[in-house]
């Protein structure tokens, strides 16, 4: 089992920045891909960004490319999502997810992930 706890959400004005963190505990000796997803009210869960075990391979949704950056610190069992130039349409609950796998494809598909955090709210005001 892997437990994931997100933090860093909050209320920010458009154009501002936030950094989300996700700390993993439990079965952290296993290698796992990490991803960030988000869900706005009345909408489905949307892929944001993902990263492989070593951190050298990342994938980001077109809607956040150039604004959001995913990174990880394996020594701290933590993955980050740096969000810059935030827009009102970025408002959502943000979830981190872990895929336990020996081959990381930086998947964009929620069903590929095995563990999920409880989410952290990000609200961007106009």
Please explain how this structure is put together.
By secondary structure, the protein is an all-beta fold. The chain is built from no helices and eleven strands. Strands 2, 4, 5, 6, 9, 10 and 11 form a seven-stranded mixed sheet that branches. Strands 1-3-8-7 form a four-stranded antiparallel sheet, with no helix packed on it. A hairpin with a 6-residue loop joins β5 (about 45-50) and β6. The chain starts with a strand and ends with a strand. The mean pLDDT is about 95.
Kindly summarize this structure in a few lines.
The chain is built from no helices and eleven strands. With 126 residues, it is mostly beta strands.
The mean pLDDT is 94
> What Rg, in angstroms, do the CA atoms define?
13 Å
Helix and strand run: EEEEEEEEEEE
Question: Quick one: biggest sheet?
Answer: 7 strands, mixed
Q: What is the overall shape?
A: globular
Please give the oligomerization state of what you see.
single chain
Structural class, judged by helices and strands?
Answer: mainly beta
As a percent range, the share of strand residues is over 45%
Stretches where pLDDT is under 50 for at least 5 consecutive residues are none
Counting DSSP H or I runs of 4 or more residues, the number of helices is 0
Q: What level of helicity do the residues show? A: under 10%
Number of strands: 11
N→C terminal distance: 40 Å
């Amino acid at each position: 089992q892997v437990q994931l706890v997100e933090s860093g959400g909050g209320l920010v004005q458009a154009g501002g920045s936030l950094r989300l963190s996700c700390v993993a505990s439990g079965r952290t000796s296993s290698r796992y891909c990490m991803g960030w997803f988000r869900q706005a009210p009345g909408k489905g869960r949307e892929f944001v960004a993902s990263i492989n075990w070593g951190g050298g391979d990342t994938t980001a949704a077109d809607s956040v490319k150039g604004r959001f950056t995913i990174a990880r610190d394996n020594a701290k069992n933590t993955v980050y999502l740096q969000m810059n130039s935030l827009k009102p349409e970025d408002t959502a609950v943000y979830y981190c997810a872990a895929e336990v796998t020996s081959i990381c494809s930086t998947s964009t598909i929620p069903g590929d992930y095995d563990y999920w955090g409880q989410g952290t709210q990000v609200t961007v005001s106009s």
